Amino acid sequence: MTDLQRGSPGRCMLNRPFWKGRKVFVTGHTGFKGSWLSLWLDSLGADVTGYALDPPTQPNLFEQARLVGTVRTIRADIRDFPQLKNAIAECQPDVVLHLAAQSVVRRGYEDPIETYSSNVMGTVKSSGSAAAVEAAVRGGQRHQRQMLCEPRVGLGISRRRAHGRS
Predict the structure, then answer these.
(1) CB-CB contact of 94 with 23 (8 Å)
(2) Span 2-19, mean pLDDT?
(3) Which residue in 27, 52, 123, 134 is deepest, having the highest Cβ count within 10 Å?
């Protein structure tokens, strides 16, 4: 059993060269976690494109951190499949990180259908858009490395290992 399977990820050394110059598409970058992630990726030298609605609260980290001048921002709804697909195709990302969601608990109770639509269908459309773009650039034109951390220190997991293949 690995450290990750035991729930003890061990030490993870960030693979900084992986992110330098890497095109990263982040959905939900105006939310709290998306804003932090975008700041962090930018500090690592990634070329970040964010796709989200306006920040959900006032005040908010996105505006306080002045991310609008730091990362390319596309203001749109994750459920708008044609626009999302076009945005991902235009960005030609190496990595897609999906954080977009309706996360305000009170709003979720007040409008569960809207929350389901955003959180579940937004994920489906985000995955579908990324898959469609990935299929269009396959065939040697683009190589995606699926390693986020150094493999020798415990948390580096390739896509193959994550799915139980060596």
Answers:
(1) yes
(2) 59
(3) 27
